[in-house]
Amino acid sequence: MATIRILLIEDEAVYADRIRESLTEAGFEADLATDGNEGWMLGNTQTYDAAVLDLGLPRVSGLDVLQRWRHAGRTLPVLILSARSGWVERVNGLNAGADDYLEKPFKAQELVARINSLLRRASSKPDAVLRQRQIEVNAAAGLVSKGGQTVSVSPLELRILEFLMRRPDRIVSQPELLEHIYSGSASRDSNTLEVYIARLRKKLGRDCIRTIRGMGYRIG
User: Does the pTM exceed 0.85?
Assistant: First the structure.
């Protein structure tokens, strides 16, 4: 049986030690990062089955770490931890791409149970083929179809479509989409992005990508 690797990003020593011990007792292999920059780099360069991410981190905040991962297309399940209560923080974390949220203080058993739930949900989602209504995207094979008919798209159009389809339940802002599809040295032209969105609508139907005025884009 393959070892399940968990990335724990927590700067408070008391919580970090307790969580890491609980994860180890549950049979997981846990790597610890004690600041946001270290955690972001580990999550961006190594393979983990899930991450436990504190929001109040030094150097780079937990919310920024999560947003960077999602912008880069990292889809690992993320459980956010926070000492702050309130629905605004919860909503911000979920909108940034978190899969679950747990407020401090918490019971170690609940943390492990939530991680197991995230892992079950992740294993039940086939990443190879993304589906939205009649549209199917197999990013690995570079294939797009609608109603069973293959649709020819450019590599950039494929990246746009895949990025949106991996986030079916939220609005993707224009800067977020631009940051994903263009390299760091490329010119991030919003007008060009609109051209590619229009091409996708022409090929897949005008309602395949919705523009939410003042906010961004949403698939379907």
Answer: no
